[in-house]
Amino acid sequence: MQNWNILFRRTHLYLGMLLLPWMLMYALSTLLFNHDGYFRQFRVTDPQWLPLWEKDCTIEAPAGTEALRETARRLLEDNGLKGQFGVQRQGQRLTINLQNFRQPVRLTYDIAGKKLRAEKRKGSWAEVFIRLHQRVGYGHAGLLNNLWALAVDVFCVTTLIWIATGLYLWWKLPVTRGWGWLTLGGGLLSIAILLGTL
Amino acid sequence: MNPSPSKVIRRTHMYLALFVTPWMIVYALSGLVLNHGQVVRTLYGARFGQFEKVGERDYTAAFSADADPRMIGAQILDHLGLAGSFNVQGTTSQPRLIINRNAAFATHRITYFRGENRLLIEKQRFTAPVFVNRLHFRHGYEQPFLSSRIWAVTVDLAIAAMVFWAASGLWMWWEIKPARAWGAVCGLVGFGLFGILLASI
Prior knowledge:
The complex is a heterodimer of chains A (198) and B (201). By secondary structure, chain A is α+β, with helices and mostly antiparallel strands. Chain A is built from seven helices and five strands, in the order αααβαββββααα. In chain A, helix 1 (2-18) packs antiparallel against helix 6 (143-171) and helix 2 crosses helix 5 (125-134). The longest helix of chain A is centred in the last third of the chain and has 29 residues, at 143-171. Chain A is elongated and about 75 Å long. Chain B is an alpha+beta fold. Chain B has helices at 5-35, 37-44, 69-80, 128-137, 146-175, 180-200, and strands at 51-58, 86-89, 96-102, 107-113, 118-124. A five-stranded antiparallel β-sheet of chain B has the order 1-5-4-3-2, covered by helices on one side. Classes of the chains: A alpha+beta (198), B alpha+beta (201).
């Protein structure tokens, strides 16, 4: 089936070309995780956050999760900030972390002192890679955030497609079957032994 | 006759892929689970990541006030016949020390109540999403156990494979003349999209 062969080869190749940046990003960021002891030196040092501004501010800081998110959303909007964020309240302090691959911003609201402070995280290429690797999930603010989540899905599904088409292409090369079985079997046996002993 | 560089690159691309196939399946499935965390949690309900009590027992041991929590954890796990990679939450000055023993198929959580000389042993229920996620998050050479270190080597191998696939993929794309134009379009779209997302979110 020459047509299937060509179709699988081209699918394998074009998906690879399309997702090349994600492939390299996930590979290099995994290196940071696997050699954390060495790469820790490239992460930001104290103080990790640099002040941007501070202002007087009076808002209600509700206790419920949804209400808290709504308050955080309003605070961000009022200060010209938007994007994916997380919010938490600890005692008299409300902290909003505005995510950004290159430079996250943190808003801290002192409930008792009625002060709102904005800070930006120091730059670190290692942390950019870590944030790229760890960003997942839909339902966040804006089209581009959801587009990133879609790209993560596409990358995961494509990995399975690469495996399926790769196996097909291997099988179509009879001369490689012996070594192919050996490497595939070696991988399966290795992971089975590791799973049994970890 | 020596094989051509092109053939060596093609074969290396393929055999490397065949070997790391099981790891890539784990990473792909786990990536989907993480990207749809809320849906998966809803699907599994209370079972998701739930710990169930396995037992409780007395544990009388004398540890100095400055004893290393990891040393305590290792000794307790050894005593329970659960030796292997683990992490510890808490300090020796706290009344409770939590030891998480992370095996491939299950996590045991052991709570050591120091003042009461008592151990509470719990085991996480097996669910496929938690299983693949646990393998996904496993990395690093810090754990002093052979299988954990070999796993870290396989993670490095997967990294090397991914970089090699990218580089050799470009080589092979350039060799297939009819695929150059569409390959270039796909590459440009990919890098363009990645660049926009990196710059804007």
